[in-house]
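Person: I have long wanted to understand how a fold can be written as tokens. Underneath my words sits a plain record pairing an amino acid chain with its backbone structure tokens. Those tokens are not coordinates but codes from a learned vocabulary of shapes. I should like you to check that the lines agree and flag anything odd. The protein I mean follows directly.
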Amino acid sequence: MKIAFIGAHGVGKTTLCFDLASRLKRLDHSVDIVKEVARACPLPINQDTTLEAQAWILHTQGAQEIAAAAQYTTVICDRSVLDNY
């Protein structure tokens, strides 16, 4: 199962991710959180973004989600590939 939180900056996505993961772990679920990758992007983002930067974010996010899903039954994403759109 994959659960992704999307939305504007500062609305509480990260807090919700960690709260949900904690609750699921208490129920013996195998859970991982995929953290937001945009902050690690080596290319310009936000108002100065480029197609290359958006491609980097999209592919990096996707790769991390796939890797997490291979090891855990539940993956919670702080943002998702949908944010690029």
Summary: The first helix runs from residue 13 to 26. Helices lie at 13-26, 51-71. Residues 4 and 62 are 12 Å apart (CA to CA). The longest strand covers residues 74-78.
